[in-house]
Amino acid sequence: TEAWRPDGDDPRAASGPVRVRVPAKINLRLGVGPLRADGYHELNTVYHAISIHDELTARRGDTLSLTMEGEGTGELALDDSNLVIRAARALAAYAGRPAHARLHLRKQIPLAGGLAGGSADAAATLVACDTLWGTGLARDELAAIAATLGSDVPFLIHGGTALGTGRGEAVSPVLARPTSWHWVVAIADGGISTPEAYRELDRLRDRGTAPEPIGSTDGLLAALRQRDPAVLAAALGNDLQAAALSLRPALADTLKAGEAAGALAGIVSGSGPTCVFLTRDAADAERIAGELAAAGVCRQARTAHGPVAGARIA
Ligand code: C5P
C-alpha cells in the first residue's frame, strides 16, 4: 500500500523545491496582419529565445502564494491578476487538484518591455508546478494550457527559434544548424502596454501613415540558414516598431546610437520599448553594449545570445 501523504498528492510529486529557468523572447520578424473579430491580430512571426532569464521556484504549501525579487519588485501586482498565479490555477484546474504552492520569482526580464517577461513567468510556473505536483503533463498539453494564458506563453515553453502563427500561440520549431547569434539588449525606462502598441498600429494604418506591412517570414528563415549575421541583420523586421516609435519617439535615438556604435541592425523588440541589436560576435556585442550605456540612450544595455532553451528545470 502507498504511504499516506498529508497533502494527498500524486506519488510522483517532488518533495524539495523545484527551480525553473525561463528566457526572454525577441521577434526576429514580427508581421502583424489585420485585427480579427476576437480582438487579436493575425501574426506571422519568428520567435527567438535569448539568454536573459527569470527564475521561478515552487515549494509545497497549504495555499497559493507568490513573492518576488529583482526587476519590477513593488510595481508588479502579486495577486490573482499576476500571470504566475493564473498559470498555477490553470494547471491545477486542468489536473483537477488544489493549486497549493509557495512560489518565488526572481526577475531579470523588465516589465512591459516587449521581451514577454510575464509570459515567460507563466511558462515557468506551468513547468515548475507540473513537477512539484507530479501531474506529469506532456509538453504539448502544457503548451495548450499556455495558450489560454497569453499568445507568447506556448513559445516560452518550447524556446529556441520558432515560427509563430495565429495570434502567436501556434508554434513550430525552426530547424537550423546550431548557430549562436550575439545581441545587445537596450532596456528602456518604463514600459509600453502591449494592447496599446497594437491599438497605435491600427490607428497608424487607419490614417494611412503606417509603413507597408513587412509580410512573409520566408526571407528571414532563409537568412537563418546562412549563418551570416550580416545576412540575418538585413532580414530582421517588426511591424509594431512604427507604433512603438510613435508612442515613444526617443526610441529612434536608441536605434541610431546602436547602429552608430557598429551594430549590424537594430529593431524594437515586440511591442517595445526594448531595442535589440544584432552584432558580429560576443566581443562586438560587449563593445557596443558599453557604447550604448555611455551614450545614455537606455536604462541598461546588456549582452545576450540566442537561441536558448525554453522553460526548464534548473
Ligand atoms: O495574448 P496576450 O494576452 O499576451 O495579448 C495581450 C494583448 O495584446 C491582447 O489583448 C491584444 O490587445 C494584443 N494582441 C493582439 N494580437 C496578438 C497578440 C496580442 O492584438 N496576436
UniProtKB/TrEMBL annotation:
The active site is at 25, 152. It comes from the Bacteria. The keyword DNA repair does not apply. InterPro entries: GHMP_kinase_C_dom, GHMP_kinase_C_sf, GHMP_kinase_N_dom, IspE, Ribosomal_Su5_D2-typ_SF, Ribsml_uS5_D2-typ_fold_subgr. HAMAP family: IspE. Belongs to the GHMP kinase family. IspE subfamily. Catalyzes the phosphorylation of the position 2 hydroxy group of 4-diphosphocytidyl-2C-methyl-D-erythritol. This is 4-diphosphocytidyl-2-C-methyl-D-erythritol kinase.
